[in-house]
Amino acid sequence: MTAENTAAEPMAPLFEVRGGCFSYGDGDVLCDINFCVGEPDILCVLGANGAGKTTLLKCMLGLQKWKRGASYLRGRRVESIRAKEFWSSVGYVPQAKLSSFAYTVGEMVLLGRNSHIGGLSMPKERDREAARGAMELAGVSDLSGRLCSRISGGEYQLVLIARALAAEPRLLVLDEPESNLDFKNQKRVLSTISTLCKERGIAAILNTHYPEHAMDIAQRALLLLPDRSAIYGSAANVLNEENLKRAFEIDVYIHRFKIGGRAYASILPVDGEEKRQTERLREMETRIAQIGIIVEDPDAAEKINKLLHEYSEFIIGRMGMPYRERNISIISVIIDAPNEKISALSGKLGMFPGVSAKTVYSKL
Ligand SMILES: Nc1ncnc2c1ncn2[C@@H]1O[C@H](COP(=O)(O)OP(=O)(O)OP(=O)(O)O)[C@@H](O)[C@H]1O
């Protein structure tokens, strides 16, 4: 065993894959995969059917062997870590298929303590306490005495999350946790994962078929492409229309909007005619923009103030600076608003005599 395999690197991220390549036979399934995740981040893995999401998850967890490259937990190669130690840091949540187990929910969650309980030992009070805590966190305490075969799919998914949490992991790995659930239960499962990561300071990696879910809860995204490479980065940067089209081979329209100050996005796969029609909707999308204003006529200042006041609910930052040598003022306004509002404000500013205004839009 080399020193590199055993010693944790200082400040190593919680989990990392470097240069991961895998094939079942001749052709590559995954090619040069790189990503890392730290606490309390959520990373979503997305890609079309057959893109390699499940395979990636297996390689990450050491259930399949990378052909090239490796996975690292706190800087240590995963294959050099003993299984019991690995599974006490990593909680795996499989897809919730209807359970036929004759276990109660409480017993099922207690099974999550296996990595902490010796081979022939019985669970101790400490284990029962951890299982109770995990059920509370996942919001399934009330189901404790019910049989797993007699609860709903959404409830069972939360039970599986509780079972993984019972081991008190630092990283949760979830395989399509919201598939097979109705949208109320999808929301419940996703917000449970998001809250857990924030409150417990743990990280999560999850496969999903829903880019909207990734945009909603993930800080990072890994998008698997048909050519077997991947795009990795912040969810906001990776999940744009161009990249989603590359991954899913269909045009995509992303509609961004705000409710109660929180940003949301809805994503629509569109074909030719629909694509043209969505162009009109762009006017209602919210964007972040900076409007740079040069005021050469001192009398215009008051009119500008009045106008900016009308848009105050959208203005998130404002800065003004006189440049006395030339007797002008420079104002910078940052605005988070629907496109139509931004262009209207920018247009009105440009109409004032002695005022020049230029708008720069963010890519998001
Ligand atoms: N055991 C196997 N032997 C050979 N090829 C396999 C095996 N498992 C999967 N594959 C192939 O590897 C590729 C990736 O499969 P994988 O199941 O990882 O994709 P996925 O992104 O999870 O798909 P889906 O979204 O449909 O679940 C596919 O082309 C699949 O046919």
Automatic annotation (TrEMBL):
| Keywords for the protein's UniProt record, in alphabetical order | ATP-binding, Nucleotide-binding, Transport
Q: Matching SUPFAM superfamilies, A to Z?
A: ACT-like, P-loop containing nucleoside triphosphate hydrolases
Keyword Zinc appears in the UniProt entry: no
Has keyword ATP-binding? yes
Specify the ABC transporter domain's residue ranges.
15-251
Pfam families named among the record's database cross-references: ABC_tran, TM1266-like
Q: Which residues form a coiled coil?
A: none
| Single Gene Ontology MF annotation | ATP binding
Do you know which PANTHER family this protein is assigned to? IRON COMPOUNDS ABC TRANSPORTER, ATP-BINDING PROTEIN, METAL TRANSPORT SYSTEM ATP-BINDING PROTEIN TM_0124-RELATED
How is this protein named in the record?
ABC transporter domain-containing protein
Native organism: Synergistes jonesii
Show the taxonomic lineage. Answer: Bacteria, Thermotogati, Synergistota, Synergistia, Synergistales
